[in-house]
């Protein structure tokens, strides 16, 4: 059956074609002679004279997998942990009618995942460069499935939602069950299709229908003097009920979220820290997507100051070839000298790729100059939305309830990604505050500047520490944070004062605290409608507003160990999305 008219084995051409990519590979040394089913070909399994399986895990192989998938009777392809590249060809019943197990994880395969095989049982494709969405996956019988650590995005739908989040984690932008829901702040900022976020925001500020305020919102109550004792009692009762409910939820989620994050353990096997980085001369290290950056063009670029913070100044730079980036020039005072730990951290931060995290494209550390090159996000920051420019105080654009929720949910996803990124020790953001939550061209909230403040020197800020208030007075705490500027208003109480010291001792728990402060500020902000005050709290309805406030209060628990993890915060927020 295996013989063709000219005497050659039918499966020989695809196998030899694959071998041609790897002429010197030790694993394929035994692939000689005209009969791959002679029993001498290592890694080749035959049945009735035809190749039905290829097993070449950990064999240092390069080239594409397409030739192997051209084997007409192939049932199993296991080529994990090689350096295979190129696209996975579209697979369906006409190309691979017998394929049951496809194991291609830990390679460098790219392109979309287009697999429509009703009988496929195993698809493990984690740790590759697959991109696009999962719509072209039709694998109803699959029992073992993993596409984590790729560059996939879009919604997880249908049958695939039955797999755990570990099957999908670490992608550029996958969302939907079992991951958090897909939310676009873009939609929230403006309902009309095709409308730009800024146009949408303008429309809202000029009295758009979504800019209305809840008559029963917490801030509205506060603003009107809280004259109504009965309403207050009801609010407190709802608060207590929500609090108890959230605590209970929290306990039940604890186990689930632990399981959900277990995929990180796999990462121990492979350290990609040094991968995807090139030095483009002059000490500029470029990360994925920043390959075109050159230090000379950065230094020559026309620049516009975006703002100045504790850690340095940020510029919008337009490079010669028209590329626009944001360049953060770190303060020499806060970041003196060379630090190996900081360099290491930057290389790690350069690997963070998530739709709700601002991508670091390059990093330069030479002659006492430290430049961080980020994607430029054109729609400002949460700080500017809430309070106008970089500084505190009034003048912010209107922000309806849906936009507030979308921004918070997006930022929480970004922070959760950072917290669950496989790194030892685990990553900490250390500077969660509204000016580090930026809006991209679609209006999606992205967290910026992961971990930078952990390496700042112990330089005290001139901004006074706002007073801390008893836990019950969450609105005062949020207001204090809003007015305080810097990071102080958002820093957890257990951290030492002073930006550098506080950043250095920051933990994931203190990040959660800071996020909680941001959440409380956003939920109770007073700039819905006309941008000049006039009540706040959005149009979420009293129950929902109180629900968000309770999440904020859980996050800002005085004791770090009582705070939820970001995965739990996300799950709680998901109930209101
Ligand atoms: N990638 C970016 N794209 C667009 N704007 C940005 C980007 N990064 C920062 N900005 C904006 O530049 C301004 C200055 O940011 P910068 O990070 O220097 O200061 P900060 O966040 O106020 O304080 P800190 O030094 O504590 O981070 C902020 O308004 C911020 O929103």
Automatic annotation (TrEMBL):
Subcellular location: Cell membrane
Chief localisation class: membrane
Matching PANTHER family: LEUCINE-RICH REPEAT RECEPTOR-LIKE PROTEIN KINASE PXC1, PROTEIN KINASE DOMAIN-CONTAINING PROTEIN
Membrane topology according to the record: Single-pass membrane protein
Record-annotated membrane-spanning stretches: 220-245
An example Gene Ontology CC term for this record: plasma membrane
Single GO MF annotation: protein kinase activity
Name listed for the protein in its UniProt record: Protein kinase domain-containing protein
Domain named Protein kinase: residues: 300-577
Record: residues binding ATP: 328
UniProt keyword list: ATP-binding, Cell membrane, Leucine-rich repeat, Membrane, Nucleotide-binding, Repeat, Signal, Transmembrane, Transmembrane helix
Entries under Pfam families matching the protein: LRRNT_2 (PF08263), Pkinase (PF00069)
Species in which this protein is naturally found: Oryza glaberrima
């Amino acid at each position: 059956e295996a013989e063709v008219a000219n005497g050659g084995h039918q499966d020989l051409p695809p196998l030899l074609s694959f071998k041609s990519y790897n002429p010197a590979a030790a694993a394929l040394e035994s692939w000689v002679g005209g009969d791959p089913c002679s029993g001498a070909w290592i890694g080749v399994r035959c049945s009735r004279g035809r190749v039905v399986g290829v097993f070449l895990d950990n064999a240092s192989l390069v080239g594409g997998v397409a030739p192997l998938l051209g084997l007409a009777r192939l049932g199993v392809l296991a080529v994990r942990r090689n350096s295979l590249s190129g696209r996975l060809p579209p697979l369906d019943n006409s190309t691979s009618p017998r394929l049951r197990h496809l194991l291609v994880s830990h390679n460098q395969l790219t392109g979309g995942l287009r697999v429509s095989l009703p009988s496929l049982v195993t698809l493990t494709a984690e740790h590759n460069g697959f991109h696009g969405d999962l719509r072209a996956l039709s694998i109803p019988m699959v029992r073992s499935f993993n596409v984590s650590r790729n560059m996939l995005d879009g919604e997880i739908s249908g049958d695939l939602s039955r797999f755990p989040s570990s099957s999908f984690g670490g992608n550029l932008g996958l969302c939907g069950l079992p991951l958090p829901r897909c939310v676009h702040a873009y939609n929230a900022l403006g309902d009309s299709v095709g409308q730009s976020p800024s146009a949408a925001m303008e429309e809202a500020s000029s009295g758009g229908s979504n800019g209305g305020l809840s008559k029963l919102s917490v801030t509205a109550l506060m603003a009107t003097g809280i004259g109504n004792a009965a309403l207050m009692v009801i609010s407190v009762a709802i608060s207590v009920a929500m609090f108890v409910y959230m605590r209970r939820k929290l306990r039940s989620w604890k186990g689930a979220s632990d399981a959900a994050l277990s995929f990180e353990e796999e990462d121990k096997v492979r350290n990609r820290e040094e991968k995807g980085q090139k030095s483009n001369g002059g000490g500029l290290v470029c990360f994925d997507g920043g390959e075109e950056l050159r230090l000379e063009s950065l230094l020559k670029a026309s620049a516009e100051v975006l703002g100045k913070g504790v850690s340095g100044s940020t510029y919008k730079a337009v490079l010669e070839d028209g590329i626009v980036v944001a360049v953060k020039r770190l303060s020499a005072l806060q970041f003196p000298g060379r630090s190996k730990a900081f360099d290491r951290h930057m290389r790690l931060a350069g690997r963070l790729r998530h739709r709700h995290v601002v991508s670091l494209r390059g990093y330069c550390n030479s002659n006492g100059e430290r430049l961080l090159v980020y994607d430029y996000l054109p729609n400002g920051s949460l700080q500017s939305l809430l309070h106008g420019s970089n500084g505190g105080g009034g003048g912010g654009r209107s922000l309806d309830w849906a936009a507030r929720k979308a921004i918070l949910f997006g930022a929480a996803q970004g922070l959760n990604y950072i917290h669950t990124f496989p790194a030892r020790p685990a990553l900490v953001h250390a500077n969660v505050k509204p000016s580090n939550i930026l809006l991209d061209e679609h209006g999606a909230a992205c967290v910026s500047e992961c971990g930078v403040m952990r390496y700042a020197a112990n330089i005290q800020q001139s901004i006074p520490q706002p007073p801390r208030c008893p836990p019950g007075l969450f609105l005062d705490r949020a207001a204090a944070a809003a007015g305080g500027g810097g990071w102080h208003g958002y820093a957890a109480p257990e951290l030492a004062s002073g930006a550098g010291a506080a950043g250095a001792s920051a933990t994931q728990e203190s990040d959660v605290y800071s996020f909680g402060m941001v959440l409380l500020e956003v939920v109770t902000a007073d700039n819905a409608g006309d941008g000049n005050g006039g009540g706040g709290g959005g149009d979420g309805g009293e129950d929902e507003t109180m629900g968000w406030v309770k999440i904020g209060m859980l996050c800002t628990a005085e004791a770090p160990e009582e705070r939820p993890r970001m995965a739990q915060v996300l799950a709680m927020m998901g109930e209101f999305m």
